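May I ask for an example protein's residues together with how it folds?

___
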Amino acid sequence: MSQQPAPAPARQPLDEHAAESARAYAAAERAKADVLASVLEDIAANGYPSPESGVPWETARDAHLARLADEQPRVA
């Protein structure tokens, strides 16, 4: 078996709309990762938050479902 790495496949360019969509998706995912990283850094620096300061998951779920029910219907 050869120690040579397999050649990378040729890439096909994206049209401008697809490229912009990919950039927007990457930016949104990067923002989510930044939020997660800041939460983890806060936990590392200050410890876990007390349970009394949190919101029970049932309350968060019900609030989210209520927000979804209030939205206008959208066509996919």
Q: What stands out?
A: The CA atoms of residues 2 and 8 lie 16 Å apart. The two ends are 49 Å apart (CA to CA). The mean pLDDT is 90. Helices lie at 16-46, 57-70.
